[in-house]
Amino acid sequence: MKILFAFFALFIISCSSNPKATLTGDLAVGIEKAGTLEQETSVSYSITVDDNTYIAGWVDQISVDVVVSLLDKDDEEIDSFDNPAKGHEPFTFSIEDAGTYRLKVTPFEEESGDYTMIINVVEPIATDRNERADQLLSMYSQDVPGAVIGVIENGKMVYSQAYGKANLTHDLDFKLNTPTNIGSVSKQFTAYAILLLEQRGSLSTDDDVRDHIPELPDFGEVITLNNLLNHTNGYREVYNLMPMKGWHGEDNLLRSEVINTIKNQKELQAPPNTEFNYNNSAFIMLAEIVERKTDTLFPLWMKHNVFNPLGMTNSYVRQDPSQIIPKASQGYSTGENGFIESGDLSAAYGAGGIYTTPEDLAKWLSNFNEPVVGSKALIQKMVTPRVLKNGDTLDYGFGIGIGEYRGLKRYSHGGADIAHRAMLTYFPEINSGVITLSNNASFSTGVANDLVNLYFEDQLEKDDEEEREDDSEKEDGTFIVSEEILTTYVGKFKLESLGMIMEYSLEEGSLMSKVSGQSDLNLTAITDSTFTYNGIEATALFKKDATGIVNRVIHTQGGQDYELERLPSYEANLDELTEYSGKYFSEELETFYTIKLKDSTLIAVLRNFEDIELSTAEKDNFSADVFFIQEMVFKRNGQGTINGFEISNGRTKGVSFEKQ
Predict the structure, then answer these.
(1) At what angle do helices 187-199 and 280-294 cross, to 10 degrees?
(2) What is the mean pLDDT of residues 344-348?
(3) Is 227 in contact with 272 (CB distance < 8 Å)?
(4) What region does 15 belong to: left with phi over 0, alpha with psi -120 to 50, or beta?
(5) What is the model's pTM?
(6) pLDDT in tens, 411-458
(7) Residue 398 near residue 196, CB atoms below 8 Å
(8) Helix, strand or coil, per DSSP, at residue 9
(9) Which of helix, strand or coil describes residue 594?
(10) Whole-number mean pLDDT of the chain?
(11) What b/e readout covers 35-57, taking b as 16+ CB neighbours within 10 angstroms?
């Protein structure tokens, strides 16, 4: 399921054109163009532009989900946009060289339907960095759910700006002081609360979790607060587990249910400190520990011990989605007829739930440099990368990512509630950073890197593309890989440890990747066997066996290497599919699934969900079209009869169901 985003079908943005930049060809500025897509086809528009031209527009996805791509004269993809599944798909392209380009509209997966397209901005790429920042955010500057940014240089806010609407119902503009949900960026605040309590002698991060939450089960291994803080605990992840029960993101969820999910867990997903597996349950329990140790609700404790001392006067921990946050932004995703209001995740505080502003976050980052709350030793402990039992060093400290970006040490974390999006990036060596916050489910947190490159270019090393000098490079710095080689990478690859299947496909000469229930991602070559994923900070390295066959992929993300093994091509026949039919029950989830054939397709029936389509990966192994079932592995008894299955989705693994 893709992140959803929509817009009014009849709304046309007011046109903006700069006489110093021109566009000719199949599209004209401000003129809407209608089109129809058939399955596995695309529609292209030829456009001719001047050098250093910026264009922006929308595709209104009336009845088809589309991908918008820009291709150069050699038919090589420059960039593409594919976030929302409905409504308006925004796109922006910055074109350096004058010439003729192809704007291509392709259906997502095997879809067909109608759309309209409009280009509403054509202007020179801005040379002033503040004006360029506004261009990068221009798609959120109209009457749509918007965004707010802040750029900190040498400890001072050098630019901040708000765009679009904080509330569509009441036509309220986004403002610099509009509190906005920062999602998982909140985790570093929770980690800081635990470290403050440790500094005050109330607890130790080496404590057994059961010393503080004794009702948790004894799995035979000591799980410490350290393991909660750095996602190496082996517990179930609640927001990837609960959908398996038929729960949706805006459904009510009691905080006590988070502990109950752990109490129902039969065994750890991995021994402590052996595997990084991002876990919201852990940070919800950390907030619970703060409450039990201080006899104070976590939102109130944070206000008195962190926010107020730092002067963060527009910052709040939202106790539940019904709490009113003064003048806060409303989150928006999509419905059939346009934007819809989206609530926040229930039970989220500790893992998320903080509403704040760029000005307040600037004060938080200032505390990293010159602590007002805590100490330099506390901060150093928080930002020290953790080490696994096998000696691997993570790109993660306590509630915050630790790494390097173009030669500078970087602390960073992204955040995403149901509709809000956030990114906080800080470079301690230059006491500078970037903040991006949005109430638009389609907002790209990659804008943060664009702003980093824009404002701190002089302090950054050249990136890999700038340094490469290879005969097979194109003029724009990307690496050319023949379609013959790309074809050898096509197939399904399985990450056994996380129960995840990644499928690589070749579409019109471009390599694509897909994980069940998530959007396709384009890959860009940096060598003939190594690729970056467009939209996430990760790489894929394709490896050959002794016979020259590509048999595995090394997927690197978050400082960890994940090895995926190629799956042999397999397709079950109808008789084989019928064998899986039946009713299955999970004691852990107290939930039934019905598996049955429908129009020659195997489906899973789960309450509160439409039919879930299953597709074969290998014998007895299926993936689904929902994010929480990336792998469904059927089990057989000694006689070869199917007697159950297990569901995994990366963060939550091996949830068992028995056939009734």
Answers:
(1) 40
(2) 95
(3) yes
(4) beta
(5) 0.86
(6) 999 999 999 999 999 999 999 999 999 999 988 878 999 999 999 999
(7) no
(8) coil
(9) strand
(10) 89
(11) bebeeeebbebebebbebbbbbb
Give the length of the chain.
660
Model confidence pLDDT, tens digit, residues 178-199:
999 999 999 999 999 999 999 9
The first and second tokens of residue 132, run together, are 């360029």
Residue identified by tokens 């309220």 is: 172
With 50 as the cut, is the pLDDT of residue 4 above it? no
d(CA 516, CA 378): 40
Predicted pLDDT at 10: 27
**At 453, which helix (H) or strand (E)?**
helix 447-456
Burial letters 107-123, b for 16+ CB under 10 A, else e: bbeebebebbbbbbbbb
Q: What residues contact residue 486 under an 8 Å CB cut-off, 6+ apart?
A: 506, 509, 511
Cα–Cα–Cα angle for 159, 407, 53, nearest 5°? 50
What is the pLDDT, as a whole number, of residue 535?
Answer: 67
Q: Which residue is it, tokens 């824009």?
A: 454
Report the b/e string of 511-541 with b at 16+ CB within 10 A. Answer: bbbbbbbebbbbbbbbeebbbbbbbebbbbb
Of the candidates 284, 275, 153, 125, the one whose C-alpha atom is nearest the C-alpha of residue 216 is 284
Q: How many CA atoms lie within 13 A of 549 on its CB side?
A: 7
pLDDT of residue 347: 94
8 A C-beta contact, residue 602 and residue 608: no
Tokens of 117: 């397209």
* Contact between 394 and 388 (Cβ < 8 Å): yes
> In this predicted model, what pLDDT tens digit does every residue of 367-382 receive, in sequence order?
999 999 999 999 999 9
CB atoms within 10 A of CB 83: 19
Kind plus residue range of the DSSP H or E element containing 618: strand 612-618
- HEC string of 518-567 equals CCCEEEEECCCCEEEECCCCEEEEEEECCCCCEEEEEEEECCEEEEEEEC
Rg (CA), the chain: 25
What is the residue whose two structure tokens read 């506390």?
Answer: 378
- For residue 367, the one-letter residue type is N
Closest CA to 322 of 336, 343, 341: 343
pLDDT of residue 6: 32
Sheet bearing 421-427, strands edge to edge? 156-163, 147-153, 432-438, 421-427, 408-416, 401-405
At 68-106, the pLDDT tens digits run 989 888 888 888 887 766 777 788 899 999 999 999 998
Element (H, E) at 134: helix 129-136
pLDDT in tens, 511-564: 888 886 666 788 888 888 999 887 677 889 999 888 888 999 999 876 678 889
CA distance 430 to 432: 5
